[in-house]
Design brief:
InterPro entries: KR_dom (IPR057326), NAD(P)-bd_dom_sf (IPR036291), Sc_DH/Rdtase_CS (IPR020904), SDR_fam (IPR002347), SDR_family_member_7 (IPR053011)
Family: Belongs to the short-chain dehydrogenases/reductases (SDR) family.
Radius of gyration: 21 Å
Strand order of the largest sheet: 3-2-1-4-5-6-7
Keywords: Membrane, Oxidoreductase, Transmembrane, Transmembrane helix
CATH class: Alpha Beta
Number of helices: 11
GO molecular function, one term: oxidoreductase activity
Distance between the termini: 65 Å
Bound molecules: nicotinamide-adenine-dinucleotide
Order of helices and strands: HHHEHEHEHEHEHEHEHH
CATH superfamily: NAD(P)-binding Rossmann-like Domain
CATH topology: Rossmann fold
Protein name: Ketoreductase domain-containing protein
Length: 337
């Protein structure tokens, strides 16, 4: 076959586009993250020995971050409300790693109790002398329709997810500015960037975090050694739905939803660590088809709204019918009660 140089170039370009397309379809994070995974610094090199404070360390993503960081040799401050659960996580960290008892501080903390945050930070500093990285991970979600939701639920979501996180960050940051180095990594959500039906208050609280940290990042430009990062995961396996607020405070979710379609917690935690090691400022972490939504919302909002309305309507209808709204996009919906 006689192929001209131009045809070879065209074929090469086509092959390149196909390879990139396949990579994108199989991707589980944004392009910067993909680059960091392939060519960036490894967490093993960058995070060993660091003092890392994780809020919401008693379950889900925070618990998994604690395990992976302990294996890397990072020293840990573990916080959430339940001390016994934190001691369990600490015990596992010690057995998975070569860390010593004093390398992990269990520091119970309620994001709602903002008046206690200053003293908690002082306790952490007294133990380790400094905090290298604060991971603002603790938070709660929501599964309820706006028209049925008490405003107290909206207040609680803002208090925990937004104000609790802001309060702790404000207490930790001065220690970082004094040293001129540190990182604040905040686990936001896909709901911090896009609209999510049944989670109006949760999405609002995560949008608030995005606005806050995107603005703070620029205020911190006088401190080039300080990194402000936000993490935007799509659905990840954890207790988030089980622990979600419903339409009234104190009314629990009736059943945990199917988690098969969600990203494994370990993969999400690993990607967060890669992002931290490479000081990435915004991390989009999700399987397809969720990842494509991030891009659509960013670049073609009109198309994104049309698609969200189509899929979101089904989610709302399933919820109203008492079906599992979370897995309803992907599998035969299950009754939640
Ligand atoms: N799992 C997901 O699909 C997903 C997706 C996007 C973002 N996120 C975010 O990831 C973070 C971790 O959630 P997860 O999925 O591991 O859920 P999870 O429910 O398993 O863990 C949440 C953690 O936050 C803690 N927490 C809740 N209220 C608190 C309070 N008042 N004070 C202190 N700690 C409190 C819990 O004790 C727990 O340790 C949250 O900020 C969540 O919004 C989760």
């Amino acid at each position: 076959m006689d192929l001209s140089v131009t045809s070879v170039l065209y074929l090469g370009a086509l092959l390149y586009v196909v390879v990139q397309l396949v990579r994108f379809i199989r991707a589980d994070s944004d392009f910067t993250m993909l680059w960091a995974v392939a060519f960036g610094y490894k967490p093993e090199k960058r995070l060993r020995g660091k003092v890392v404070w994780i809020t919401g360390a008693s379950s889900g993503i925070g618990e998994e971050l604690a395990y992976q960081l302990s294996r890397l040799g990072a020293r840990l401050i573990l916080s959430s409300r339940r001390e016994d659960e934190l001691e369990r996580v600490k015990g596992c960290c010690l057995s998975y790693s070569s860390l010593q008892e004093e390398d992990i501080l269990v520091l119970p903390l309620d994001l709602l109790e903002r008046a206690s945050h200053e003293a908690k930070v002082k306790t952490a500093i007294a133990h380790f002398g400094n905090i290298d990285i604060l991971i603002n991970n603790g938070g709660r979600s929501q599964r309820s329709l706006c028209l049925e939701t008490s405003v107290d639920v909206y207040q609680a979501l803002m208090d925990i997810n937004f104000l609790g996180t802001v309060s702790l960050t404000q207490q930790v940051l001065p220690y970082m500015t004094q040293r001129g180095t540190g990182a604040v990594v905040t686990v936001s959500s896909v709901a911090g960037l896009v609209g999510v039906p049944l989670s109006t208050g949760y999405a609002a609280s995560k949008h608030a975090l995005q606005g806050f940290f995107n603005s703070l990042r620029t205020e911190m430009t006088d401190y080039p050694g300080i990194t402000i990062s936000t993490v935007c995961p799509g659905p990840v396996q954890s207790q988030i739905v089980h622990n979600a607020f419903t339409e009234q405070l104190g009314r629990p979710m009736l059943a945990a939803a199917d988690q098969q379609h969600k990203m494994p917690t370990s993969r999400c935690a690993r990607l967060i660590l890669v992002g931290m090691a490479n000081q990435i400022k915004e991390m989009w972490i999700a399987h397809q088809p969720f990842l494509i939504f991030f891009y659509l919302w960013q670049y073609t909002p009109t198309l994104a709204w049309a698609l969200t309305d189509m899929l979101g309507r089904r989610r709302v209808q399933n919820f109203k019918a008492g079906l599992d709204a979370d897995s309803a996009y992907f599998s035969k919906p299950k009754k939640t009660y």
